[in-house]
What does this fold into?
Amino acid sequence: HQDNRDNPMNPSQGNVIIFRLDAFGGLLKGNRAYTKYDLDLRQYVTPIKGVTVAGRVNAGFISAWKDEYDQFETILFEKFYLGGSKTVRGFRWYSISPLDSEGNKNGGKYEFVTGPEISTPLSEKSKIWLTGFIDYGAIGENRLNITRSSYGFQIDWITPMGPLSFIWAWPIKSEKGDDLQRFEFSLGASF
It folds into this structure.
């Protein structure tokens, strides 16, 4: 984990690099043995006063996952899912996923999320910012074959309780049957 942002709540300069490795089973035994890798990169720059441009890339994969583990996925959510304010806004949380043979979402072994943001303060005194964004995500069981994208804007307000986000998003790429969410309220940082 490396965090060089000038302000963790509302960064204008710096970057964040987070590498996460979760190993299950192996020497610890258990009824499943696999490894989950996740890399999150975020960069923030302020090319002109009052305008911050941010970019992110998040990629992950799971190795040694066996099909028989999928029976536990409906309650454990150990695989990757997209949708919601942390991945592809404009789609409901965990709604973008490969389907099992019965049509149930069962997560993916691969994920990729990226997108730019541009933000400017509406009121620095009240700590309110306006942000425009484009999100792109890909997920899949054996390759990144399910893709979705969206665009929108959000209003972020840093309160004593923590950051509040009001998000409006519209799909750029969606499929029939997708669970869209044009408005979302979020407590906590979204990017």
Observations:
- The first strand starts at residue 2 and ends at 3.
- The CA atoms of residues 83 and 95 lie 6 Å apart.
- The helical segments are 73-76.
